[in-house]
């Protein structure tokens, strides 16, 4: 697939998803960025804003497998990855695959599971494989984890460790719809739910081909250094105790390539990087305790950094 073919593909998917999800084009676009950059998404929002519907609609639009796993305190790692069971007919132990063996996995309320169960996803998210009893099983491609958590209700939850947060390419929030969009939603769902009749507009092969195409999106030296300067600045900022990792630098780079291709360009511009910084970096930095007590947020710190780093300009 040529880079020029990525934008029409993305537009078909976005328009199809918007047949169910009213508005939120910018969020849908960023979800596609994660898919094309082979990343995962952390959706932080209150219940009822359409997180599950978005995941289901995306899977149906791409005609790929979808699994939803409700994370609870009694969920075991084997409930995620699968386990060996004894087959009485053959007299052997056979591996029964867990819900992680899918294309799009919705990990609902991931912070309600214990850290041990949360960690069962680490290998799957990073290496696209699962290891059980010394055996390694590759996961289907494409593979996307959309994890959700309620940022308001914290009772009975286990905060995600930094190692797991770093494996999410983007942290997004759908937010409440505008009054106009909410009225459109009521009219759209007045007679029937449009999701069951939604037809696919792309395939897994289309997505995999697009992934190969975006690797050829050009990133000039100045843009590359701009990305590096931003992530390095998070490690030196006075308000930040733990800065962004080298994985974050790579994530920002690949996400910028994907966003440029979706916008119809074969090159990255500074605005791509600036748009992505808040959703790629804020969940990867840890503010110092004193700064948190003063009411400072990671978003504010990242915005300070973006404003302080000189933006590359085109050479005449």
TrEMBL record:
One of its GO terms (molecular function) is ATP binding. CDD domains: AAA (cd00009). Residues 37-178 form the AAA+ ATPase domain. Keywords: ATP-binding, Nucleotide-binding. InterPro entries: AAA+_ATPase, ATPase_AAA-3, CbbQ/NirQ/NorQ/GpvN, ChlI/MoxR_AAA_lid, P-loop_NTPase. The keyword Nucleotide-binding applies. Belongs to the MoxR family. This is ATPase AAA. It comes from Ardenticatena maritima. The lineage of its organism: Bacteria, Bacillati, Chloroflexota, Ardenticatenia, Ardenticatenales. The gene is moxR.
């Amino acid at each position: 697939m040529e880079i020029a073919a990525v934008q029409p593909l993305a537009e078909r998917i976005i328009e199809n998803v918007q047949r169910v999800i009213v508005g939120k084009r910018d969020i849908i676009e960023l979800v596609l960025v994660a898919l094309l950059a082979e990343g995962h998404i952390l959706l932080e929002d209150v219940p009822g804003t359409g997180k599950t519907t978005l995941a289901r609609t995306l899977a149906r639009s791409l005609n790929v497998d979808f699994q939803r796993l409700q994370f609870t305190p009694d969920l075991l790692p084997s409930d995620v990855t699968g386990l060996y069971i004894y087959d009485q007919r053959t007299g052997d132990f056979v591996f029964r695959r867990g819900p992680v063996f899918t294309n799009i996995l919705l990990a609902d309320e991931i912070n309600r599971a214990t850290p041990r169960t949360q960690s069962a996803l680490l290998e799957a998210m990073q290496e696209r494989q699962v290891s059980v009893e010394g055996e390694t099983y590759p996961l289907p491609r494409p593979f996307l984890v959309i994890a959700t958590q309620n940022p308001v209700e914290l009772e009975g939850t286990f905060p995600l460790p930094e190692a797991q947060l770093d494996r999410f390419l983007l942290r997004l929030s759908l937010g409440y719809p505008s009054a106009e969009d909410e009225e459109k939603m009521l009219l759209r769902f007045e007679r029937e739910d449009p999701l069951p009749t939604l037809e696919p507009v792309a395939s897994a092969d289309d997505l995999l081909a697009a992934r190969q195409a975006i690797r050829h999106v050009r990133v000039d030296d100045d843009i590359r250094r701009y990305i590096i300067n931003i992530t390095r600045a998070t490690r030196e900022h006075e308000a930040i105790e733990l800065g962004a990792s080298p994985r974050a630098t790579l994530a920002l780079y690949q996400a910028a390539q994907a966003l440029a291709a979706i916008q119809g360009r074969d090159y990255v511009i500074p605005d791509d990087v600036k748009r992505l910084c808040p959703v790629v970096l804020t969940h990867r930095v840890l503010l110092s305790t004193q700064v948190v007590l003063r009411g400072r947020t990671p978003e504010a710190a990242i915005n300070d950094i973006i404003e302080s780093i000189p933006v590359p300009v085109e050479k005449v």
